[in-house]
């Protein structure tokens, strides 16, 4: 079985995946995984009589065993690819961070950095720049041909609406951005004391540089999370629009940053 799996590369994996994920949801129902593995072994050149239930069971245990406890759970493409692809093909492993990305500010810093033409989208070319830097950071060399191939595979995996560019939510998936920080807070927070305490926590979370003001990607991160409280996924252009409106409304001293008291005022909170 292992020798068959040696023939698995990113492009082939994706092809097999798409056969099962026809609606392009990025996930497959856990209970369909046996069929998935059978199909995979077949595609990798194994004869039908060689594909036994036992082999399939072992694959399931090896690659998706955590799901066995909950058969209703879906298997995500990036999780399975990270488990299955051989190391040299598995550029997706590079996205696995020791600590998950849990702050939209860091996310927006990356986004602004690679959306080099500020179009509000990450194009295939911009994605390639991102991958190049990632390989550099991990001190891995990669041929131009592999760069093209990985970029293309990533686009196929994450460009949900097939318009040839990645949106904010596609990129958030690639970087495994954790859930919205603002969801932690109840909007019906009762007393003024509670609201002030929440405000302090919120401000501290977004003021990553600890300057007492939100600037650059700190504003972006805050705007992204705020907007996504009311709309599940926003586009880069919507973000820019709302950012502009927020700055116009909140940045009272017009220094291009949002000081703590400015944000408090904006949120209808009077700090003593
Ligand atoms: Ca762009
Ligand atoms: Ca797209
Ligand atoms: Ca700051
Ligand atoms: Ca200001």
Automatic annotation (TrEMBL):
Main localization (coarse): cytoplasm
Tagged with keyword Cytoplasm: yes
Compartment list: Cytoplasm
InterPro entries registered for this protein in UniProt: Calbindin_Ca-bind, EF-hand-dom_pair, EF_Hand_1_Ca_BS, EF_hand_dom, EFh_SCGN
GO terms assigned for molecular function: calcium ion binding
One annotated Gene Ontology cellular component of this protein: dendrite
Signal peptide limits: none
SMART domains to which the protein is assigned, alphabetical: EFh
Domain EF-hand: start-end pairs: 8-43, 102-137, 146-181, 194-229
GO BP field: regulation of long-term synaptic potentiation; regulation of presynaptic cytosolic calcium ion concentration
Pfam families: EF-hand_5 (PF13202), EF-hand_7 (PF13499)
SUPFAM superfamilies according to UniProt: EF-hand
Keywords associated with the record: Calcium, Cytoplasm, Metal-binding, Repeat
Top-rank lineage group of the source organism: Eukaryota
Name of the protein: Secretagogin
